[in-house]
Amino acid sequence: MPYTPPEPTRDDSAAPHPDPEAQQEWQVRRAAQEILAKHLRKSPPGSRLHRSAAAPTDVLASYWPGVTVNLRSAVLLEVDFSECHFIEPEFEGARFTGQARFSGATFHGTAGFARARFDGYAAFDGAEFFGHLFSHDAAYEDIADFRGGAFHRQFYLAREEFAGQVWFTDSVFYADARFVNPAFPGSAPIFHAGIDLTNARVLNTSEAVMPPTGWTVEEGDTSRVIVSENGNSSLGAARNRRPPYPRQGQTPDPRWTS
Hints:
The chain is mainly β. It has one domain (about 20-55, about 60-250). Helices cover about 10% and strands about 25% of the residues. It has 1 helix and 25 strands. It has one helix at about 20-40; strands at about 70, 75, 85-90, 95, 100, 105-110, 110, 115-120, 120-125, 130, 135, 140, 145, 150, 155, 160, 165, 170-175, 175-180, 190, 195, 200, 210, 215-220, 225-230. The strands form 5 sheets. A 9-stranded mixed sheet has the order 1-3-6-10-14-18-22-25-24, with no helix packed on it. The chain has a 6-stranded parallel sheet with strand order 2-4-8-12-16-20. Strand 24 (about 215-220) and strand 25 form a beta hairpin.
């Protein structure tokens, strides 16, 4: 339902919230989000950070297999869908207020984020897309973090607007990757603060790779690597202090447990 989130208040303030009904609605929506996330996880949240890739995992009794999610035009508040499993999820036109975490999530079928708006940090690090990602006309007001992500189908951006930095560091593209398309200049995304593609790899050596301005492709025998044209990324790892979330089956970065 339509909803305008209340303005944040200081945590140490003893005064009641100026709009108690809006604050109560906030709490109800947060609770509903947590219930949904609980049923979309096969394992406890964060368990992937503290085990090796070979460690066995038991499926939680609370997990709902085969469930599709339709959250078109929803207002989502500080949502945490880390390590959730989505089937044909629909987030078209959704508004994500505060941080939106999809770290380590898996998407089967089409993942619809067209015209979505992310007001805060958008974390898709370690996410794996087995179907198409449709995010045309989406708006990202803060950092868009796709570090370590995996894209199994054709990847392309169309009319997205990124106000903050965009990170695709260490991402893997199994098909072709099109960050811009010179043949359709009107569909080009806008990167206001730059994009980092350091160590991004494209495994299909026969399809087109269209990197954004400032980046080029190095050809290899089994894959292609997207590299900075000047040999030095302008958005280096120093700004990416939190290691990317591990994908399913990956051993976590030692920094998560150190």
